Amino acid sequence: MEKEYDLEERTTFFSEKIIVFCGGIKRSTITNPLISQLVRAATSIGANYCEANGASSKKDFKNKIHICKKEAQETKYWLRVISTADPKKKDEARELWREAQELLMIFGKIAHSCKGS
C-alpha cells in the first residue's frame, strides 16, 4: 500500500521544525536577525506552495512555485550562517539544510515542468 505524498504537509512540517530549531538558539544581537530571516524564508516556502495550489491562473501558479524555490535557496543560506553563529546547532542545521535542498529540487522540478505549459 503506497503512502500518499503530500507536499503541503511536508512544507508545513518543515516550517514547524525550523520554528522549534530557532527556539533553541541562544538569543543575541548576532543571532536575533538571523533567526528572524530564517523563520521568514523557511515558513514562506509552505505558505507560497499553499498559495500556488489556489492559484488563479497558470502564470500565478508558476510565479508562486518560483518563489518557493527562491525561499528554499534562501533558507539554506540562513541555516549555514546560523550554524556559524551557534556551532552547537551545526548538526541540526545540517539536517534541516538537507531538507531545504530536497525541497529546492522538488520545486525546481515543478518549475521546469511548468515551462512547457
Describe it.
This protein is mainly alpha-helical and 117 residues long. Helices cover 80% and strands 0% of the residues. The radius of gyration is 15 Å and the shape is elongated.
Descriptors:
elongated, mainly alpha, 117 residues, 4 helices
Query: How large is the radius of gyration?
Result: 15 Å
Would you tell me the overall average pLDDT?
A: 94
Number of strands: 0
- Portion in beta strands: under 5%
Are there runs of 5+ residues with pLDDT below 50, and where?
none
The ordered H/E elements are: HHHH
SS content category: mainly alpha
* Helical amount: over 70%
Q: Between the first and last Cα atoms, what is the distance in angstroms?
A: 32 Å
> How can the largest sheet be summarized?
none
Tally of helical runs: 4
Which of globular, elongated, flat, extended, rod-shaped describes the shape?
Answer: elongated
